[in-house]
């Protein structure tokens, strides 16, 4: 267990808080502020308990130099509105300079300052000095609340922790609790559902989960690599050539470990990668040579739904088909529906899976939707995330 803001005295402390304010922008306007809203509980807690709150984040990829289109100034405005209090923007092309230090020195307890985009500095993504030390010179306590970048060791996500005590904010606490409990202490049966485009992207996740789950359901583009490994004709379906051997190996391992690994028994195929293409439903070992797999079939949807309904813990990563095209979204929707209906802890990891669940209106029916695509995958691989590793243990 990692310490949180509640385990330390924050009163009067200059507190450096790493948030995820990497919000989508268009013409200088924030188009979706969900990430900013998600950061509010930690910020409000710190403010209410008398900390001097110094916020840091990256946005986009300015590649180590100041670029106006990536300024965090609009985030300071939105934060001020949402918190109904002034959030001072410490404008600086180098993030930390004498004017920023002066602004921080002038802070009263409960004040909030937002620093400029940390990726204006080239050291940030390499976790290098002098930027780490410059950031650290501003604070006495580090709070990491940016799960989406916790799998990266950057100055603002990990480096500063070598200068001061470090604890988690409420967002990271929640991610660790839900993802951690699901994977390490699951109520059984524990079912994992894996999909998405490539097996090799997810191989480590599948390997790690094979040691933990009772059942593993495979869907999405990666299913055809499993078909190939079984010797099926897969037509023009997406194939992960280097994944064939891995898929064969995973099926063997599953058998040895007594894990029920299911691959789709039927498949929706189409003549081309297009929503309006001619399509058909075929048995998975009967994909025509000139067709490509686009979604799991109706029989598979039934089988997977029945398995999910019996589960007590479900972890899902990767859509079951090309859900962006309405004609090939049924498999993904069926899995989302089954999870929504299940009397189970339901956890979604992965950017596209989270987007699919949101788009289909099931978001509030899930126990937890991870906010970190890459970070949640690395967590499911069993890796310790650098931005979490630096936090103090309870
Ligand atoms: P996540 O972001 O949830 O981890 P991935 O990025 O691995 O998921 O995969 C998502 C992508 O996989 C989606 O864009 C989806 O269209 C694609 N996909 C799913 N099924 C297929 C398929 N049968 N053929 C091609 N692409 C597929
Ligand atoms: Mg993705």
Outline the fold blueprint:
Elements: E1 14-18, E2 25-26, E3 29-30, H1 34-48, E4 52-56, H2 73-83, E5 87-90, H3 98-105, E6 112-115, H4 131-136, E7 141-144, E8 166-168, H5 170-184, E9 190-194, H6 199-210, E10 215-218, H7 223-229, H8 243-257, E11 260-262, E12 266-270, E13 279-283, E14 292-296, H9 298-310, E15 313-317, H10 330-341, E16 345-348, H11 351-359, E17 368-369, H12 373-380, H13 386-389
Parallel strand pairs: 1-4, 1-7, 4-6, 5-6, 7-8, 9-10, 9-15, 10-11, 15-16, 16-17
Antiparallel strand pairs: 2-3, 12-13, 12-14
The structure holds adenosine-5'-diphosphate and magnesium ion.
Magnesium ion is lined by residues 350-352, 373.
Task: Please tell me about this protein's structure.
The chain has 394 residues and is an alpha/beta fold. The chain folds into two domains: 5-171, Rossmann fold (3-Layer(aba) Sandwich), CATH 3.40.50.1260; 186-381, Phosphoglycerate kinase, N-terminal domain (Rossmann fold, 3-Layer(aba) Sandwich). 34% of the residues lie in helices and 17% in strands. The chain contains 13 helices and 17 strands. A six-stranded parallel β-sheet has the order 5-6-4-1-7-8, sandwiched between helices. It has a six-stranded parallel β-sheet with strand order 11-10-9-15-16-17, sandwiched between helices. Strands 13-12-14 form a three-stranded antiparallel β-sheet. It is elongated, with a radius of gyration of 23 Å. The relative contact order is 0.13. The mean pLDDT is 96.
Summarize the structure.
The protein is built from 13 helices and 17 strands. By secondary structure, the chain is α/β, with parallel strands linked by helices. The chain folds into two domains: 5-171, Rossmann fold, CATH 3.40.50.1260; 186-381, Phosphoglycerate kinase, N-terminal domain (Rossmann fold).
């Amino acid at each position: 267990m990692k310490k949180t803001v509640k385990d330390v005295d924050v009163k009067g402390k200059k507190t450096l808080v790493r948030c995820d304010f990497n919000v989508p922008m268009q013409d200088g306007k924030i188009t979706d502020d969900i990430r900013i809203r998600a950061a509010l509980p930690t910020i409000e807690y710190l403010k209410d308990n008398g900390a001097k709150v110094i916020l840091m984040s990256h946005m986009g990829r300015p590649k180590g130099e100041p670029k106006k289109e990536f300024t965090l100034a609009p985030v300071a405005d939105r934060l001020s509105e949402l918190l109904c209090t002034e959030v001072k923007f410490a404008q600086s092309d180098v993030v930390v300079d004498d004017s920023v230090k002066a602004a921080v020195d002038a802070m009263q307890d409960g004040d909030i300052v937002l620093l400029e985009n940390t990726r204006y500095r080239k050291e940030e993504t390499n976790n290098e000095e002098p930027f780490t030390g410059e950031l650290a010179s501003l604070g006495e306590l580090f709070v990491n609340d940016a799960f989406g970048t916790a799998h990266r060791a950057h100055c603002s996500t990990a480096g500063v922790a070598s200068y001061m005590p470090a604890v988690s904010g409420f967002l990271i606490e929640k991610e660790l609790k839900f993802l951690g409990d699901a994977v390490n202490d699951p109520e059984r049966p524990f079912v994992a559902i894996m999909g998405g485009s490539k097996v090799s992207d997810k191989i480590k996740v599948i390997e790690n989960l094979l040691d933990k789950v009772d059942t593993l359901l495979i869907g999405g583009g990666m299913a055809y690599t499993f078909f190939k490994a079984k010797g099926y004709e897969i037509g023009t379906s997406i194939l992960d050539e280097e994944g064939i051997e891995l898929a064969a190996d995973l099926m063997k391992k599953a058998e040895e470990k007594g894990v029920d690994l299911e691959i789709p028994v039927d498949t929706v195929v189409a003549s081309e990668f297009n929503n309006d293409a001619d399509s058909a439903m075929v048995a998975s070992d009967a994909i025509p040579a000139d067709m490509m797999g686009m979604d799991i079939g109706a029989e598979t949807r039934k089988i997977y739904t029945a398995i999910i309904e019996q589960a007590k813990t479900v972890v899902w990563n990767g859509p079951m088909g090309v859900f962006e095209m309405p004609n090939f979204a049924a498999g993904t929707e069926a899995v989302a529906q089954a999870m929504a209906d299940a009397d189970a802890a339901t956890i979604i990891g992965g950017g596209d899976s989270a987007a699919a669940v949101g788009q289909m209106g099931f978001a509030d029916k899930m126990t937890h939707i991870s906010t970190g695509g890459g970070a949640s995958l690395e967590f499911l691989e069993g890796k310790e995330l650098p931005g979490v590793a630096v936090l103090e243990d309870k």
